[in-house]
Please model this.
Amino acid sequence: MKHPHVEIFRLSIFQKGKLKTEVVTREQVYDFFIDKFEIFDAISKNELTYNPSEKACKYCAFKDKCVARANWIIGGKDD
Ligand code: SF4
Model:
């Protein structure tokens, strides 16, 4: 563990002119990575599957060029 003294993390995102900050504990960070393990594992093996949705693609910088999103739109959106 590189920084054992750090117990609180401030996560910030700046989108559409708004800054949103969330404070999380070390345990919450661990829980997040454990919860997302399968996704990160797939990414590390270059086996990522795209899962377009209104929410997922809303702020994506690649949405105008994404083949998965285009196929999802052509095939009819479920959500
Ligand atoms: S537009 Fe494509 S790359 Fe972006 S979030 Fe949606 S599915 Fe993922």
